[in-house]
Fold this sequence. Notes:
Strand content: 5-15%
Distance between the termini: 66 Å
Shape: globular
Structural class: mainly alpha
Largest sheet: 3 strands, antiparallel
Number of helices: 4
Order of helices and strands: HEHHEEH
CATH class of one domain: Mainly Alpha
Amino acid sequence: MVAMFKPPARDSTYKLKTAAKIGAMDTPSLLSPLGVATLIGVSRTTAIKLIEQGSIPAFNVGSGPSKPRYRIRSQDVQDFISSRSNSFKRPV
């Protein structure tokens, strides 16, 4: 009988831990919408909406506007995160 590999169970903080690892390690210079979603803690759909609204700058490497394939610079995501965190701070 061959022992089957069973991956460890994922707890509820898996995405946050993964995002922290990505942020702490060398983040790729270009991210997909899924990579952006993981970093900022939203769904892929929400990340695409933020891109299409212009909140996060991106460029299309796909075949055109009908089938976009977005790529986002990691610095733009970091700028987005810092701008959002600054807007929620209370005045002293």
